[in-house]
């Protein structure tokens, strides 16, 4: 079951697991760099340029997704469709090796550090450091949150005034509990959330016991996080893309988010629901991810004064 749940990350770019693994050993895969945090911990990260390196006006930041796979497996092709001159920064979570597939266990150290508070602290520190070492500061500072990563990206976007844009893939305004309950109601998942929660509650801080691929501690940390308040605090442009047939996060979650922005009289959110597409924005062999990043590029270019 753990393998099935972790496979979703590798499906994000629309290729096969074998292709993903081969890519990590190929010449196109980005080389690993190491970022050292103030608390003496570290993470591997990757950086590369899209467009003209001499005219970079955008910094775009990614952070780790569910589990412990390395972003190396899907970069740089993941941002195909991006047309602005940009420097891309991709930060793995702590204790995620350069070529980790995430399929063979993540280790105790990883699980102890794998919590929302640590994600936000690490992502924020990394972003501040990279902006500080870039002169002059580019016009656009963009955070990209994919699935679980949307929680962190949205939180950090609200705490750093340098951030100018937020881009979200495969997420919305529901809590994890609400998303899973909705998927259950639609017959898209087979497990019962509330009965599972009763098991988790018996030992909520355990990293040894797991439920559907993740430790009890992870579930107890993320199950009831409400992302909506963090979204509504933002006045920067937000682009949200989700597949109409997403079976990991219901499309209802993104539509709920859009409705709450309208109720609040806010017009800074753009929602794109891709027809017949799944969690990776793929539909019948067609990837809408390129379309998503192309639209993000248009939004960034429209900010030029």
Automatic annotation (TrEMBL):
One of its GO terms (biological process) is proteolysis. This is Hydrolase or acyltransferase, alpha/beta fold family. Pfam families: Peptidase_S9. Coiled coil: none annotated. Residues 105-285 form the Peptidase S9 prolyl oligopeptidase catalytic domain. InterPro entries: AB_hydrolase_Est10, AB_hydrolase_fold, Peptidase_S9_cat. GO terms for molecular function: acyltransferase activity; carboxylic ester hydrolase activity; serine-type peptidase activity. Keywords: Acyltransferase, Hydrolase, Transferase. It comes from Geotalea daltonii (strain DSM 22248 / JCM 15807 / FRC-32).
């Amino acid at each position: 079951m753990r393998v099935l749940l972790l496979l979703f990350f590798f499906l994000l770019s629309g290729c096969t697991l074998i292709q993903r693994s081969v890519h990590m050993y190929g010449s196109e895969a980005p080389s690993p760099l190491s970022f050292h945090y103030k608390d003496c911990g570290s993470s591997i990260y990757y950086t590369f340029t899209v467009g003209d390196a001499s005219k970079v006006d955008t910094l775009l930041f990614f952070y780790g997704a569910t589990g412990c796979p390395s972003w190396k497996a899907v970069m740089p092709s993941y941002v195909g469709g991006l047309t602005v001159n940009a420097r891309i920064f991709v930060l793995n979570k702590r204790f995620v090796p350069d070529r980790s597939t995430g399929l063979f266990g993540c280790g105790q150290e990883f699980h102890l550090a794998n919590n929302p508070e640590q994600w936000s602290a690490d992502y924020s520190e990394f972003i501040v450091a990279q902006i500080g070492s870039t002169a002059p500061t580019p016009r656009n500072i963009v955070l990209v949150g994919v699935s679980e990563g949307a929680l962190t990206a949205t939180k950090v976007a609200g705490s750093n005034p340098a951030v100018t844009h937020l881009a979200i893939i495969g997420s919305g305004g529901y809590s994890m509990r609400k998303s899973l309950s909705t998927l259950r109601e639609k017959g898209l998942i087979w497990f019962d959330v509330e009965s599972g929660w009763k098991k988790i509650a018996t030992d909520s801080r355990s990293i040894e016991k797991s439920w559907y691929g993740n430790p009890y501690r992870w579930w107890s940390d993320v199950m009831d996080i409400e992302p909506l308040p963090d979204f509504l605090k933002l006045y920067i442009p937000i682009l949200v893309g989700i597949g109409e047939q997403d079976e990991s996060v219901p499309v209802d979650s993104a539509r709920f988010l859009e409705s709450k922005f309208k109720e609040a009289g806010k017009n800074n959110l753009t929602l794109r629901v891709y027809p017949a597409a799944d969690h990776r924005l793929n539909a019948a062999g067609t990837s809408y991810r390129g379309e998503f990043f192309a639209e993000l590029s248009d939004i960034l270019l429209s900010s030029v004064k």
